[in-house]
Amino acid sequence: MNTQPNALQARALAIIAGGGVRQAAAVDHPVRIISPDGMVSPLTVDELLREKWVTVDTSRTLHEGQPVEITACGLALLPDQDQDVIAAGDGPTGDQGLASALRVAIRYGDVGVVLWDDEVEITGPGDTVLVSIKGRRFTEPYELARFLGINADDIDDAR
């Protein structure tokens, strides 16, 4: 067993922590992973299962879709993961799951964060907007940095 996930596994853990990930298959077709927040390969899910970093709810059929969920061990492997999330009992909230996924993407990928007057943009290569959060939720870069669990220097203040 590994003690730390590699970069691909860490990315998959962050996506799974965000929720909504399930594995499914139709008759005569291979298992595929359905994820609202990014691509995860079935082989990666198998590796995460072997490490006990995720679980699969096999009480459902593959045709229905089997939820893939992060375990407390897997959640603890995410960078700067707030352990209070585990104590909450129901797992991370949507905001916390999003922050976990973004934190991993910002640290390990070619991703930037831009704070505007009325929105936050998460940008990819070539300044392609990956995520746009409308509404003025953060007034200062340090507030957004604290939420995402990253350095305030990683945020482009475009206000």
How do the strands and helices of this protein lay out in sequence?
Blueprint (H helix, E strand, L loop, with lengths): L6 H11 L4 E3 L7 E3 L7 H9 L3 E3 L9 E5 L1 H6 L6 H4 L6 H15 L3 E4 L3 E5 L5 E6 L6 H8 L6 E3 L2
Parallel strand pairs: 5-8
Antiparallel strand pairs: 1-2, 1-4, 3-4, 5-6, 6-7
Helix pairs in contact: 1-2, 1-5
Number of strands: 8
How helix-rich are the residues, as a percent range?
A: 25-40%
Largest sheet descriptor? 4 strands, antiparallel
Provide the succession of SSEs. Answer: HEEHEEHHHEEEHE
Class per helix and strand makeup? alpha+beta
Distance between the termini: 47 Å
In order across it, which strands form the biggest sheet? Answer: 2-1-4-3
How large a portion of the residues is in β-strands, by DSSP E?
A: 15-25%
Number of helices: 6
Low-confidence stretches: 81-92
Coarse shape: elongated
How many domains in all?
2
Instruction: Determine Rg (CA atoms, Å).
Output: 17 Å
Query: What's the overall average pLDDT, rounded?
Result: 79
